[in-house]
Amino acid sequence: MTRINLQARGLRKTYPRLKVLEALESSPGAHLSAEEIFTWLDQKNAGLALSTIYRVLAQLAEIGILRKHQFGDGTHTKFEIETGKQHDHLICAQCGRILEFHAPKLMELHSGIARHYGFDLYQHTLTLYGYCKDPQCSYAQ
Asked: In whole angstroms, what separates CA 138 from the centre of its chain?
C-alpha cells in the first residue's frame, strides 16, 4: 500500500494509481520509465496495460506527486516520486545508471548566477553525463 495520500490531492484511490505508485516506491530513489513500471507490474500479474500506465504517470506528474525527467536526447522519459528535495543527477552514458546527488555549494552558485542576471530562482535541472565505475557496467570492464 502506498504512503502517498491520493485523496488529499483530489484523486480517488484506484487500482492502477496504487499499483504504479507501488512500483515506484518499491525502489526508493529509482527513476523508472513507463516500460520499466509495466515490466515490474507484469511480473506481479497486476494486469495493467502500458497505455494505462502512461495515463496514470501523466496524471500523477501533472499534480506534482511524480517528477518527470527527460534524460539524454529527450527520448528517455523517467519518473520518480516527488520528495520536494532539490537534487541533481549523474548518468552513465554506457549502462544508463542514474545517481542522485545534492550539492549545496552548487545551489549557492546557481542562486548567485540567477541573482546576478536579475532572476528569482525557483527551480533548476542539472544532469551530468559520464561513465561510471560500477563493476556491472560494460564501460568499467
From this structure: 24
Residues 65 and 94 in one domain: no
Model confidence, pTM: 0.80
For the chain, how are helix, strand and coil distributed in percent, rounded to 5?
35, 20, 45
Q: Are residues 27 and 48 in the same domain?
A: yes
Dig out the grid coordinates for 106 from the structure: 552548487
Q: Please, which contacts does 112-121 make with residues 24 or more away whose CB atoms are closer than 8 Å?
A: none
Q: Could you read off the pLDDT of 87-112 as tens digits, one per residue?
A: 888 989 888 888 889 888 988 999 99
Classify residue 23 by burial, with Cβ atoms within 10 Å: 0-12, 13-18, 19+: buried
Claim to verify: residue 91 and residue 76 sit in the same structural domain: no
